[in-house]
Design brief:
146 residues; five-stranded parallel beta sheet; globular; alpha/beta
C-alpha cells in the first residue's frame, strides 16, 4: 500500500471562477487541516502563439514564469481565509490533460476548480476543462460556480 498524503489542490487560471475556487479551497484546507497547493497550467496554445510571433525560447520560458506568478498571486489575494499554500505547481501543456495526470500521480488529492475559466469559446467547441477533468479524475473534485 502506498503512503498517501491527502491535500487540497486548487486549479488556477486567473479567471473569476478560479478565484472563487481558491477561496473555497482555502476554507476547505483550513477546516480539514490539509495542506493547500496551487496548480496552474501554462497552455501550449499560448506558448505556440508566442513562438509563431517570433519570441525567443528563453523569453517564452520567462512568459511562462510570469503567467504562473500572476495567477498564483491573484489566487492568494482572493483567499478570504489567511491560508499559506505549501506549494505552487506550474505545469505546461493542455490544461485538462496536465491536471488529470497530476491527479493520477498524486493520489489523495482533492481538486477544487472553477466551472469555467478564460476560454469560453473554446469550451463550447471542444468541451470544457472542468468537464474533462471530472470525467477522468481519480479522486474527489469540487467544481465551484459563481
Amino acid at each position: 500500500m502506498t503512503n498517501v498524503t491527502p491535500s487540497i489542490v486548487v486549479a488556477c487560471d486567473g479567471s473569476g471562477q478560479s478565484l472563487q475556487a481558491a477561496k473555497m479551497a482555502a476554507d476547505l484546507a483550513r477546516a480539514t487541516g490539509q495542506p493547500l497547493k496551487l496548480l496552474s497550467v501554462f497552455p501550449d496554445s499560448e506558448a505556440e502563439r508566442l513562438v509563431i510571433n517570433g519570441v525567443q525560447h528563453s523569453d517564452v520560458v520567462e512568459e511562462e514564469k510570469n503567467y504562473g506568478r500572476k495567477v498564483f498571486d491573484a489566487a492568494k489575494e482572493a483567499m478570504t481565509v489567511k491560508a499559506s499554500p505549501t506549494l505552487e505547481i506550474l505545469l505546461k501543456g493542455d490544461p485538462a490533460k496536465e491536471i488529470i495526470e497530476y491527479l493520477q500521480a498524486n493520489p489523495g488529492t482533492h481538486l477544487v476548480l472553477g466551472r469555467r475559466g478564460h476560454s469560453m469559446v473554446r469550451s463550447l467547441t471542444l468541451g470544457s476543462i472542468s468537464e474533462k477533468v471530472i470525467r477522468h479524475a481519480t479522486g474527489p473534485v469540487t467544481v465551484v460556480s459563481e
